[in-house]
Each structure stands twice: as structure tokens, then as C-alpha cells.
Amino acid sequence: MSQNHTESLLAAAAKLTPPVGVVGAAAAGMTLQDWVWAVTLAYTVLMTLKLLWDWIVYPAVKRRQRKD
Fold first, then answer.
1. Is 25:35 a contact under the CB 8 Å cutoff?
2. Closest C-alpha among 8, 42, 9 to residue 25
3. What is the C-alpha to C-alpha distance for residues 11 and 16, in angstroms, rounded to an integer?
4. pTM to 2 decimals?
């Protein structure tokens, strides 16, 4: 498979992921309120992890690279 074909396939899969997730969750019985709660929780966790990365991990990696 060529690189361009693989990238196109991955892009198409990424575009299909949200609708497939919505259909699966609707079939499982998730309401709109459940969706808002789940997405808010996921967003909060991701932003917290990014903040920790920016404040703790990334500076430590940069310091370690300067010592080498």
C-alpha cells in the first residue's frame, strides 16, 4: 500500500469515528445529558493532562536534553 493510500484510509477512518461512536452510544441508551457529561469529563481530563505535560514533563525533558 502506498503512503498516500494509507494516509487517505486513516483520514477516512478518523472521519467515521465520531458518527460510529454516536450510533453505538445511542444504541446503548445514552441520552444527550449523558453525552454532555461524558464529553465534558473527557475534555477536562485531556486538558489537565496537557497542563501537566506543559508544566512538568516538557520542562524536565528540556532540562535533561540540555545536560546531555
1. yes
2. 42
3. 9
4. 0.54
